[in-house]
Specification:
The structure is a homotetramer. Chain A is of the alpha/beta class. In chain A, strand 3, helix 5 and strand 4 form a beta-alpha-beta unit. Chain A has a nine-stranded mixed β-sheet. The mean pLDDT of chain A is about 95. Chain A is built from eight helices and nine strands. The interface between A and B is large, with 39 and 39 residues. Chains A, B, C, D: This is Glutamine amidotransferase. Chains A, B, C, D: Keywords: Glutamine amidotransferase, Transferase.
Chain lengths: ~250, ~250, ~250, ~250
């Protein structure tokens, strides 16, 4: 059964800045979707949605039919409707996988799921990023070079204000000497979350074969393993388990 | 230097239900404050605040002068002002310790810090709760009996929808056979968080010597270890670290 | 591609005690292998090995051709050859999955991988065990009843001396009031490890459909996701990564 | 009550290589002990022991009277007696704090406590190491510059084969672009463990004020919080907890 993937992008830089459109003529979402398509083939059905779509393309029906959502946003985080953010959060809690990309660290959805400020140190100076694998047995690291190099990239550095991750998969260094936990996993409810920092609108990072490998692996990893169900309060009678064999 | 502790309680049951006031004549906050005072003595300066206070007693100045905040709420979660919740969250991220008690699992502040639904299974049937220590070397378990028994208590059971905790300190069983991760720790920003479930308005749990021991230990553990500072974005020049020796 | 599964059992109770053989006429390994076969079908190739086999059936070639090893031992832990234990450990570090069962908590291999005493509280009194899922989105919990009940079982209780697990999947309660972290995961090197306590030689637990479901799920989860390679020291020249694109 | 600290060093480089003795005239243990003494003052009683001492200075009585043990070893790991290693492990499990330094990643005691190979990438080329704090609220990071710089140091890089740490406190980058999880914490039994990589026999790293600050903080953090007791098997009768109020 194929994984239903939805690549979401605010798609503002690409539609308002010619120099960004030159890098991502099909939008960042287009570049990501293309990469996933090449690597996952029939394992995945890939769609895209953007901020400008009705309900940002994230209506109830669409999310219910999405196994893994990828999220790219940057300058329009505050234009994302709170009701949509709550809806996405609920679906993640119910089991939908979520992959948050680069500047998405400051998206409403990531901050809500983390409970921290998600702040970090940054500098846009076209620096070389070296991405090291710190969990070589993790499914997301399968077939990824140790290390791989992104020639030009915005620097993201520690302290990255996130909760202790479940797994620490990638750590990056930058030309200026900074380090960053660039690939980390979390669980919220039944949902698996992967944050991955390499990727920026000013550099063609989403065409990098190793970045594409990571994202394809992450899609497979984040897909829900069982049925979807948002955790909910229950009020069982004493020893209900004797007869029911257990409610969810 | 003594730890500045603030015990917060919505204080609604005690002021509106005579049978609850009979159990907690000084309010739940009063019972907790008394217990902490007896065990911590001069190590702590203990204050209380309630929902009815201006700004719920949680104004900026008060929080800035609080090392550890304890939180008890139940039927009035939605009456807590969102601006106050954001303020508390910011102080936790900056290093203030937070101890969330029992039905506080559904408080706005806990849900915001966890990013999950914080839902659980429950039944109010006056059941015996046995509290087992699963991390006997943890500072919060110091001097706590293995196990200790709460004769009558509301049942809280799994699945408890929280993120993976940093440390799993206590696990409870109930007469009806349920289990619950009753003592768990988290970090958000610089702040240490402890959730502890034993304690309810209908049972005199906050007079239990073992419960009091746990709360006193938790206050010591949650107190900030260094200076307070909410994590924030920085934008350093390349190799700033050469000359500054490092910004916070 | 099917998962190559090896079910290892010391097979001493079954060959020396008639009353145990009556419960497990094909040995505990036989019962487990049968259950996995029914649930995994062509997804798995299942073999068994026992203590009495040459090199306990765990020679280099066999381990190299094993994706997931299940381990049941009890009264003959000390008869397992140290050289074999080291070999198994090396293969786990290289990526082979390992599922340690019940009294295997005191096996040499589990103690070596954990670094703790792996001690616990126990009582063999035929008590009812209720197994609760604390991570309903985890692949190992897929399709498992919440809770499921094992009518008669040896009690295993806290404190269970293990390191903080990666994921806390199941927690059990027992008739006598004890609790136990009955399903927990760890990573060592590239290898995924799952410890699962329900199961004992005196009770037909390995015929329980829910226990079988858990073990089948665990086999799928523990199978290596990429190529096998034991982590090893490397001594790269400066900027080797410029030309090699990275060594493993 | 002061913390009883024991600084252990194999003390082989310093006694056999003049150029190392020039850097550490009082031995690495002497330099560390001096730094701890200056920062902790009356909070700590500091002793030292070396490989050449009877039982390596780690007899039962000494360990029983040690709250925190620091461990430096490199070329003589295999000369450490296995019986002593087992004894140290037992005391850690019982609550003694352990701080493992730099090349101690390959000590018998660290490998036994981790269960992994503890292998890493290395290069001795006198590179600048920048140490970044990834957990600014952690007690071990108190008062430590963000970042601090070690001008010349051996490079240690990922993949560092350790289990998922409890807390990820420091991450380093090196001139050559490598990264390393240079400060990580673990729990084994009741014992708290901190591994810290900055420090080498060829560079005067243990005189660095920031390194000394980290080690002093780590000593305070690793000291046992309650009574010492190695986790052990127990076999309680049913409902023993009714009358005993619980054994340890």
């Amino acid at each position: 059964m194929s994984i239903r993937v939805l690549v979401w992008n605010e798609n503002v830089h690409e539609t308002t800045q010619e120099e960004i459109r030159a890098i991502y003529p099909d939008g960042i979402h287009g570049a990501i979707a293309q990469g996933l398509g090449e690597l996952l083939g029939e394992q995945a059905e890939i769609s895209t949605a953007t901020l400008a779509d009705p309900e940002h393309g994230l209506d109830e029906e669409t999310l219910a039919a999405t196994d893994v959502l990828l999220w790219w946003g940057h300058i329009a985080h505050d234009q994302v409707d709170d009701a949509v953010v709550e809806r996405v959060q609920r679906h993640v809690q119910g089991g939908m996988g979520l992959i948050v990309l680069h500047s998405g660290h400051f998206s409403k959805i990531f901050i809500r799921l983390m409970g921290t400020t998600c702040s970090l140190s940054w500098r846009n100076d076209g620096e070389r990023e070296i991405v090291w694998t710190s969990a070589p047995g993790h499914p997301i690291a399968r077939g990824v070079d140790q290390p791989f190099v992104v020639e030009k990239q915005e620097m993201y550095g520690e302290h990255f204000d996130i909760p202790n991750p479940d797994d620490q998969v990638f750590i990056s260094s930058f030309e200026g000497g900074e380090v960053f936990r660039s690939g980390v996993t979390f669980t919220r409810g039944r949902g698996r979350i992967f944050y991955f920092s390499p990727g920026d609108q000013e550099y063609p990072v989403y065409f990098h074969p190793q970045v594409r490998r990571v994202l394809a692996n992450a899609v497979e990893w984040a897909a829900p393993s069982g049925e979807r169900a948002t955790p909910a309060v229950s009020n069982p009678a004493r020893r209900d388990w004797l007869t029911t064999g257990g409610a969810p």
